[in-house]
Write a structure and sequence with these properties.
The structure is a homodimer. By secondary structure, chain A is α/β, with parallel strands linked by helices. Helix content of chain A is 30%, strand content 24%. In chain A, strands 1, 12, 13, 14, 15, 16, 17 and 18 form an eight-stranded mixed β-sheet that branches. In chain A, α2 packs parallel to α3, α7 crosses α8 and α8 packs parallel to α9. Chains A and B meet through α4, α6, α7 and β12 of A and α4, α6, α7 and β12 of B.
């Protein structure tokens, strides 16, 4: 790890902190591991997790497909030469004109979870392949997804029938177990529910042929409270066969966090290491990145990044806060971090596993601070 | 109100939602009201609340001074011709090189709340005027500030002495009662504590001569659970005289939210109005602005914006959510809003009082969506 920091410091010696470094080799490794363990699955990378051209270009080269949330992401993906048949419009919340924009650009794969959305798709993307998002309650996820997305099994059966009548192709199902899901059995339950819908649809004369497993695969953060991701793969495979047998439907998977999180190191500097009052128990460590320039997933201290420094000395529990004049911009207060009490202004503080949901979340200029810059190893 | 919407729709008929409209006349009115009620105070506008050049230019013309959080805000303020003696560096978290940058550009007024920060100021901004931020616990505020900022009275007494010994000018005190403070008596308590520090410092041979009242004045949001702001002014004046007598120290005030919030209307459109399941009790209203493009202060549903539409029909309680594939991007779920059940795709939804802490908080491109655009009436 020290040699990694050294190579970062040598390569980016002239860059001002904070900045994000992405190791593209790590992304390639993750892609290959996934294809190794789930060779039958088609990867639809969730572009929102890290939309940098370098990442997209690499994944395109490796053969990945792309799951897209907006017309802006579509423009980006098309600009690197991806064929529209390798794209799914995976946002259940879409404007009519955006559906038309996807359709006019050749995309034929759309998600839905509501009657009102389906009408818009039928009108603006006639004949397209539709997959229906099943609502799951996401217990066990560090970043659960709530009722904002998905609908119940019963409603899906109605939507399938409706889609057919509207001239669309009811094609498959999707679900999402919640981001950073720790409980592998969530996939077992989800697949059981999906198989049931597959069976009923077949009986009703609307056979489905695609299953989208969504995302949810975990990345390595501070808490070691989940199994190695390779175990996830073997169990997902086992559950798939348990419920669907050897003749699997077409399988899609939408990794985002899994694919890019561990490729990123956010390099920050200490601004101030102080006790707010002489009689305080904890020290406050103020650094030059915070919730508004890269670390928004520390909201409610949900994602606990591993944090490393090179400073020696007695380690004490510290509260960590960002540089803005906003009290919300405290990263960790309930979960103190053990760091050297000798940390000084200018000392580097490395936030590991920051490749996902960091740079694109940055604010444009809160407190005047510019968005986080990204460099590539 | 309807005529205001009509004039917005006429003037911006060719703009795509979402966008923010700022009424500069409203900002001017707020400035004049403040100067009318507190004529002895010097306004230091908190630039972070809305850093648009049009707002800054107007306030500069009106004679406002500026409270600044970063070197980037400093560049912006200097670029419109503001003299450095009308600027305070109001962030307690500063890099040494940033302090030097302010000093080299002529700024001589700095806040501090820690020994470590004071050493940096002494080295990089020798001889400057220093004000010390007193910690308050912010009960009664909708957006409290926590222990991230400020230090206790005892520590301030040490810092004052230390500053003097370092060749700085211990000049005054500041406090912040918390943003959107509903309890006017918080100012009474704060001023009592400040007067005590003034007295002790005078006795110790370090007389202070400036008092910075911070921000905290409320803007009109949905909850009518605070008094009219004019009452705040008269009580603040009363408390000042109660504690400091007729010979007030130099008084600074740092309004942000008060100055600009009510000048803003965020114009959004309905994407989808649906029930997630047939048997659900509440409807979901999905609109094209959310937490990541303008409405981040809906976090924990802290700030409840008044929301208006022109759509007629039976009003029902709705959950409101933004357009991204992120479950965090739900604006109001615990606090439902009564809106017409007939709202259709494309209907405008107006978020009132959105002039503060909206556009500069926008993410650069989360889910690909661009930052919110701002226009001026």
């Amino acid at each position: 790890m020290k040699s990694l920091f050294k190579s970062i410091e040598e390569k980016f010696y002239d860059k001002e902190t904070p900045y994000l470094v992405i190791d593209l080799e790590n992304v390639e490794e993750k892609y290959n591991i996934l294809k190794h363990y789930l060779p039958f699955s088609e990867v639809y990378y969730a572009v929102k997790s890290n939309p940098h051209f370098e990442v997209l270009g690499l994944l395109n080269k490796l053969g990945s497909n792309f799951d897209i949330a907006s017309i802006y992401e579509l423009d980006r993906i098309l600009s690197i030469g991806v064929c529209p048949d390798r794209i799914s419009y995976g946002n259940t919340i879409k404007k009519s004109m955006d559906i038309k924009y996807f359709y006019d650009n050749g995309v034929r794969l759309f998600v839905t979870d509501s009657h009102e959305d389906l009408i818009k798709i039928a009108k603006n993307a006639p004949g397209s392949d539709i997959f229906f998002r099943l609502y799951l309650d996401n217990s066990g996820a560090d970043w659960p997804l709530s009722k904002k997305f998905g609908t119940c099994s019963d409603n899906i059966l109605s939507l399938v029938e409706e889609a057919k009548k509207m001239g669309l192709n009811p094609y498959g199902l999707s679900f999402h177990v919640g981001s950073q899901q720790k409980d592998i059995e969530q996939w077992d339950m989800a697949l059981c529910l999906c198989k049931n819908i597959f069976d009923i649809c077949k009986k009703n004369g609307y056979p489905l042929s695609m299953l989208n497993l969504g995302g949810g695969l975990p990345a390595q953060y501070l808490m070691k409270d989940h199994n190695n991701v390779n175990l996830y793969f073997s169990f997902i495979k086992k559950y798939l066969i348990k419920h669907f047998g050897k003749n699997l439907p077409r399988i899609l998977i939408e990794p985002g966090r899994y694919m890019v999180a561990e490729s990123g190191i956010l390099v920050t500097s200490v601004i101030l290491n102080t006790k707010k009052n002489d009689n305080d128990f904890y020290r406050w460590l103020y650094i030059d990145a915070g919730k508004f320039n890269g670390l928004i997933e520390t909201l409610n201290e949900c994602i606990k990044y591993p944090i490393l420094t090179n400073r020696k000395g007695k380690k004490v529990e510290m509260i960590i806060a960002g540089p803005t004049c906003d009290s919300l911009d405290i990263l960790y207060e309930d979960n103190k971090y053990l760091l050297s009490e000798n940390l000084c202004e200018g000392d580097k503080v490395y936030f590991m596993s920051t490749g996902a949901y960091t740079s694109s979340y940055s604010s444009v200029e809160f407190n005047g601070f510019p968005p986080i810059k990204t460099y590539f190893l």
